């Protein structure tokens, strides 16, 4: 009788930060490295990680008219509820590593702080939507707001509905993320997003290596 290989522990890693901070680039690099150490990776994002979520993303980011702030918060929460139940939890249960662009902390920063709906309310709505799923690690790519906006403008030229908000909105988002990271230092890794991309990737790998018990 041969023993089946033990199923690895599923791990949930999220990337947070303002627009233009390089989350997508770093998430892709982390995925590549995780594959080289033999892990199965599910890379996903909110909003829009599922087919239904894609339609919600379209509404919340590209709706031309006004969306009431509470409705906006609930659209992100609805996307999250469906995403966590149908994609993220099943992946974690299989023992995969889920690497995700944005999660509950984005709702707390954008809707809770910057839209003024209240961080505690928004976190509790999102926790309910996600049935209490908390990331094992959250990488916060911290970046000066003006630098982030210049990067988005250079890369794409157009801003979506949230990106088009004023600089003060984005400064509130940044400070909210930093506040959360300060309050939960064990969950967060804060990285200066102006550093060289290779150095950022190294720091992230080192921390994830510790989490997974593999050499970075
Ligand atoms: P993102 O997918 O990072 O944008 P892009 O791929 O265009 O760089 O995020 C889309 C926007 O949605 C971003 O401006 C942040 C915002 N957002 C919220 O306001 N609340 C949330 O809960 C989430 C997940 C994102």
Overall description:
- With 216 residues, this protein is an alpha/beta fold.
- It has a single domain, classed as 3-Layer(aba) Sandwich (Rossmann fold).
- It is built from eight helices and five strands; from the N terminus they run βαβααβααβααβα.
- Bound molecules: thymidine-5'-diphosphate (TYD).
- Residues 19, 45-47, 61, 76, 101-102, 106-107, 110-111, 160, 162-163 line the site of thymidine-5'-diphosphate.
Brief sketch in words of this structure:
The protein is of the alpha/beta class and 216 residues long. It has 8 helices and 5 strands. It has one domain (11-212): P-loop containing nucleotide triphosphate hydrolases (Rossmann fold, 3-Layer(aba) Sandwich).
Quick tags:
single chain; alpha/beta; Rossmann fold; five-stranded parallel β-sheet; 5 strands; 55% helix; globular
**Largest sheet, described in full?**
5 strands, parallel
What's the CATH topology name? Rossmann fold
Please identify the structural class as seen in this structure.
alpha/beta
Q: What is the CATH C-level name?
A: Alpha Beta
- Give the CA-based shape: globular
What does the radius of gyration come to? Answer: 17 Å
Helix-strand sequence:
EHEHHEHHEHHEH
**Which range best describes the helical content: under 10%, 10-25%, 25-40%, 40-55%, 55-70% or over 70%?**
55-70%
Strand order of the largest sheet: 2-3-1-4-5
The kinds of small molecule bound in this structure are:
thymidine-5'-diphosphate
Any idea what the CATH superfamily is called? P-loop containing nucleotide triphosphate hydrolases
Extract low-pLDDT stretches.
none
The average pLDDT score comes to 95
Distance between the termini: 34 Å
- Give the number of helices: 8
